[in-house]
Amino acid sequence: MSNLAIKLLQLYLPLVGGVVLGWLIGGVLPKDVPAALGKFLFWVGVPISIVAFVRHADLSGPIWIAPLVAWAAILLGAAIAHAFIALQVHRVRLTSPTAVPPLARKPTQGSFLLASMVGNTGYLGYPVILAILGQQYFAWALFYDLLGTMFGAYGLGVVMAARFGKNERNCAHLTRTMLTNPALWSFGLALASRDIPLPAPIEFSLQKAAWMAIALSLVLIGMRLSQLSSWRGLPHVWISLGIKMLLVPLILGYGLQFLGLSGAPRLVIVLQMAMPPAFATLILGETFHLDRDLTVAALAIGSIGFLLMLPIWLWLFGAANG
């Protein structure tokens, strides 16, 4: 068995196992359990993981490139999606002037744009990067997520959702959510305290708690997927996922070589760019009354599609190809 096959098997067993477990128990547990688990991970689990893993992460090198590429990916995805919307609406109206294409609706446009922009670089990105590349390069994933995706989702994402939705008064609330995100504050704490030695038992417990939180995040993804019931709007879903999970990673992934980035750091960034749409898109969609059917289908299909695409990304951008 090749090294790539072994690596994929080692990754898929816990990754798929955790998601499937969440899917199975999500259908029988009370509906408020996933919400409670999500709050626990948001306030406790993820911050502990960030503190634990940053202590052993390599912060040397041009790590600042990660959030810059994250923003480039967000903006490129938005630009391509916006161009597709304009072309699609124009084409339909040329052939049938009285027709109202689905993408002419503002809520559908908003969901389409968000699904093309923001990926699940936290709950899914963290365990994938840790499983493939270990803690050494975790900081690259962290910088991409916290300084790129989070501000992209609750900054630019809020602006776009408010523009295409119907509930602008919630902008201030979502802005406060971004600024009070415990992951952001724990990231600052981790950077400030990473050189402070801890007693061995505390360090050991911190690492165990961090890995437990990562495992629970996979279970949570399965729970949330088990609660999705709408699969309409599939044609537009495939287009948005093609932009988010295929076109943007390919363009920027190969473009990174012009910045002198290769090997494991480039692989981290490519995998983060290739993540399926974030659950934040569902939160924004529900808050601003966007097209929930499109958002839900993009989350479900994108999560499955990422597992199918992962071997291709490892083959194209693996450290051996750097």
Automatic annotation (TrEMBL):
<feature type="transmembrane region" description="Helical">
    <location>
        <begin position="112"/>
        <end position="133"/>
    </location>
</feature>
<keyword id="KW-0472">Membrane</keyword>
<comment type="similarity">
    <text>Belongs to the auxin efflux carrier (TC 2.A.69) family.</text>
</comment>
<keyword id="KW-1003">Cell membrane</keyword>
<keyword id="KW-0812">Transmembrane</keyword>
<feature type="transmembrane region" description="Helical">
    <location>
        <begin position="204"/>
        <end position="225"/>
    </location>
</feature>
<feature type="transmembrane region" description="Helical">
    <location>
        <begin position="36"/>
        <end position="57"/>
    </location>
</feature>
<feature type="transmembrane region" description="Helical">
    <location>
        <begin position="237"/>
        <end position="257"/>
    </location>
</feature>
<dbReference type="Pfam" id="PF03547">
    <property type="entry name" value="Mem_trans"/>
</dbReference>
<protein>
    <submittedName>
        <fullName>Auxin efflux carrier</fullName>
    </submittedName>
</protein>
<feature type="transmembrane region" description="Helical">
    <location>
        <begin position="296"/>
        <end position="316"/>
    </location>
</feature>
<feature type="transmembrane region" description="Helical">
    <location>
        <begin position="63"/>
        <end position="87"/>
    </location>
</feature>
<dbReference type="GO" id="GO:0055085">
    <property type="term" value="P:transmembrane transport"/>
</dbReference>
<dbReference type="InterPro" id="IPR004776">
    <property type="entry name" value="Mem_transp_PIN-like"/>
</dbReference>
<keyword id="KW-0813">Transport</keyword>
<dbReference type="GO" id="GO:0005886">
    <property type="term" value="C:plasma membrane"/>
</dbReference>
<dbReference type="InterPro" id="IPR038770">
    <property type="entry name" value="Na+/solute_symporter_sf"/>
</dbReference>
<feature type="transmembrane region" description="Helical">
    <location>
        <begin position="263"/>
        <end position="284"/>
    </location>
</feature>
<feature type="transmembrane region" description="Helical">
    <location>
        <begin position="12"/>
        <end position="29"/>
    </location>
</feature>
<keyword id="KW-1133">Transmembrane helix</keyword>
<feature type="transmembrane region" description="Helical">
    <location>
        <begin position="139"/>
        <end position="162"/>
    </location>
</feature>
